[in-house]
């Protein structure tokens, strides 16, 4: 093949922006030392503040104690880019197979996201071919576009005086795309949403609400019944879906069911939130909105900057296997670690002094919105396509002047998972 | 021990001695070599460990795999005939030493 003419199906490709090698500034606040130091303890975090808007707390943590013991959460919170990045480089020290995993309980199984290699790789490698850029473009881009049109029609029916971009477009579209890509066949959108919501509620059920566990069990039972039917179906009739790839991988049915339920849990809220996050960001930065509408090649940068600036997954857990030192702080074996990637993604040491700003023209730098290392979000290319290249650009094409409707305020919620639970919009 | 030499776009070279079987990506990430990201941890799911292989080592490399070929279309810096993903190339008996050039960007 001609090496110089190939194009990435996702619009990624040659850039004129070289990555500058930057040294990391020394931390202020006396936290960074060459030797290990006493563990900073943080008692000032307010749960209500984190849920309403965590970014102020993140900035203070990064400055005062980027690796801190937080008794309220019974975990070490890591908020610097360097700390979060280092964790993801060594799964033998920072295990994904955490104790008391709410995820495992929520879906009644042990998915790849809570395994380490080599067990993780066995599950993951089977589905990677489905989720690389080529298969996403050739097998799925058309489906994602058709689904977007279906829900743009519904949004249009609601009209510019009453439309809620989350309720009428982002949420049903994300569920439809997910059901198709996973290969859930004829399951209706509302069922996909119910399962996903129940599993997500279970993953976040740190307060052990028995009603949430009951709902998880009900959804697990329904999903397992379907998956057990679909595995032999796809063995006879393979297609380009994730379930088909797993069904034909030779993996035990229990592994397949665990990872399908993981995909249902993790593949809906985040793309849904990215639709509304991007429209919210562009509405609040009209100059950048005009820039991308004038030059659609900019949608790649818009998605990448929005997922950094407003990361839908704010935090995920790890657990230390041995005594270790992270960013100068001693951490004992068996400690719970909260990898706060949303905080790391605003770290001035990685993104410069304007790290807190939304800027689609900023120099390209690696961020952690999709994680890093072997657990890098399996669906990241699918999200870039379905949301960044299709769902959002199509919405602006359909509705000139698409913007948030200030008279009907939207609602942000969450920090572990963060997004807009409603986003009233209007158009011309 | 096998050796890997990473050359930066400004010409600075760093030579590492590594265990047999170590991939170029893992060696770079473990030793803090600037300009190699290795975002996906070596699954050929990203294209952020892109390197340019010096021609004199080309014959000692494993064949370009389909996954790697596909991902090389998504490199940030220009893909050339010398382009490979560092995660797909291991040092060892058939590749006791190698020199690679690091591209100007990975993301």
From TrEMBL, chain B:
Signal peptide start-end: none
Cofactor: [2Fe-2S] cluster
Any Gene Ontology CC annotation: cytosol
Domain named 2Fe-2S ferredoxin-type: residues: 2-106
Listed GO MF terms: 2 iron, 2 sulfur cluster binding; electron transfer activity; metal ion binding
Single GO BP term: P450-containing electron transport chain
Transcription found in the keyword field: no
SUPFAM superfamilies in the record: 2Fe-2S ferredoxin-like
PANTHER family from the UniProt entry: FERREDOXIN-2, MITOCHONDRIAL, FERREDOXIN/ADRENODOXIN
Protein name from the UniProt record: Ferredoxin
